[in-house]
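Data deposition worksheet. Section B asks for the primary sequence of the deposited chain exactly as it was used as input, without tags or linkers unless they were present during the calculation. Section C holds the resulting structure in token form. Section D is free text for depositor observations; keep each observation to a single sentence. Incomplete worksheets are returned to the depositor.
Section A, Depositor: J.P.
Section B:
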Amino acid sequence: MKLSINHYRLSTKKGFTLVELLVSITIFALAGVAVYTVLANGIAAWRRGNNDKIHLSKIRLLTESMAKDLRNTFKISGIPFEGSEDSISFPVLILAEPDSSLDDNEIHRQVGQVVYFYDKKAMKKSEKSFSKAYGQEVKVGEGKILFEHIDKLEFSYCYLDNATGNYKWKDDWKKEEQDSIPIAVKVGMIFEKEIGLEDFERTIFIPIGTGEQMKELGSRVEEAETE
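Section C:
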């Protein structure tokens, strides 16, 4: 009799049905997917923000290096200051090639030419010694990559308009028109959408720049913005 009663009690205990198990598994699965989605989106946003900071840091460093070169440029025969919409070249002191005859660790510099230019979605830089650059036309070729993922690189140059006496901007700087150095150079960059950076622009003032035109040149169109 006791055995039959215990068997009855065991047989009447309720458990989970198959439907309840399936519902429970589905709820846990949905909750897991939701948590994973939130975490994945958070990690992706953090990575994008971190990449943006890295890219902006690189852009600031390269434009600061360019600004340093421009502020230290000078006039010298045979290496004029020239520029187009997507390249700029000018004389500056560059690192001299190592000389094995010198038994010291000092850094030596020499007069040379530096060129910043746009090529294959990247800003590049090249340097030439005075002997290689003297009297030669600027040829954009191989150079060190400074930053990639650029859709458009633009240089513009601030000059003094003879006709109006106002400072204006133009998109080139030809030695035939300006036997001088511009007052300022504006650098603009438009980046590829994939990296998610906003357009960048910086104006670099040149201490010795006068921006004077040849006397026979007339007025230009775009007036310089007052900073």
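Section D:
Confidence is low (pLDDT under 50) at residues 219-227.
The radius of gyration is 33 Å.
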